[in-house]
Design brief:
Blueprint: H1 3-38, H2 46-61, H3 65-71, H4 78-96, E1 100-104, H5 110-119, E2 124-128, H6 131-140, E3 145-152, E4 156-157, H7 159-167, E5 171-179, E6 183-186, E7 196-199, H8 201-206, H9 208-214, E8 219-222, H10 226-235, E9 239-243, E10 251-252, E11 255-256, E12 258-261, E13 271-278, E14 289-297, H11 303-313, E15 318-325, E16 337-343, H12 351-357, E17 361-371
Parallel strand pairs: 1-2, 1-3, 7-8, 7-9
Antiparallel strand pairs: 3-4, 3-13, 5-13, 6-9, 6-12, 10-11, 14-16, 14-17, 15-16
Helix pairs in contact: 1-4, 2-4
Length: 374
Amino acid sequence: MDKDALLQLREKINTLDDELLALLHKRAYLSKEVAKAKQGGTIFYPAREKEIIVRLQALNSALQETDSAKDGRQKLPAESIAHIWTEIFSCSRSLQKKTSLAFLGPVGTFSHFAGQELMGKSLDFVPCPDFNTIFAKVHAGEVQCGLVPLENSLQGTVGQCLDLFEEYPVSIIAEHYSRICQCLLSKNTDLASIEVIYSHPQALMQSHVFLQRNCPKAKLVEMSSTAEAAKRALAEENAGTVGHERLTELCSGDVCLQVLAKDIASSKENVTRFALIAKEQNSVLLKNPKTSFTFTVVDKAGALSQVLQIIQANDVNLSKLESRPAYNRLEGSAWQYRFFADAQADLREKPDLMQALKEFCYDIRILGVYESLL
């Protein structure tokens, strides 16, 4: 080992770190100036953040190996660009306004990690025992935002969350798609030594083929959440858990969980669509708006057909339409259904369409207008 060369390299890295910090100081100052210019407007603008990351990833991708050798630059993995700038954005937002996010807890659940994917770590995460508590806290103004799952590519719609939009007048301000990657973790490094595996029922079900093949003698025990299961596995000998790979951050003293096998679910297309909810609707300019809305149709033949024809006549594409038993039914109407839909447009800008729909609907409510990510 060339100690002198190593010392020189470390001194160069120290110098670059100092320069990076100075640049971050300048960016932080501009962020606070942006907050003043907004005069209290929306501070979370996911479309703008995504645009910046895509631009930077393109610049990173354009770096040629010949350039690297010439001027001492090294291309970064594209996902690293996203991770780094997500945290920079998160820090900038916290300087503009301290934000709290309610999620289905405890800390360490897939909802918790999805919230960090979306908004970074520089905010207050508030774990909640159920979805109702998330909606209630957002509506009461106890937290600025809440993150709730709307649907899963394997399990379908999360009906309870849709129903709660009827009870609480909150708005969707952003959507986030998070891939669910199930991993087998343990503080033991030998997979064959695992005698019991703890996890949420869905995680165990999604991974049962792998577990039967590789841990046939291990007892599978259902827990209320993957986070609680991970704590149990960390506390016991010869125990494992199935959950998010970042559960490796859970440690007891010097002992931490380790990933023994990654992406063990039978289906690799396990994606959850989350909604970021807030008390007020979006006030930002949207490039590719999506409107989530709900309605009930009048009790006469062809009412739903008329609703769909009006939407089609206004050249609006529906990307989602489903019905659920109405949470707040009209008296004497035990079989009334409420429809939930996503339209690829900002329906707030189409008053004639909304007025036309009222002829065939008991009620219509816009749940939120936000940037479409697909």
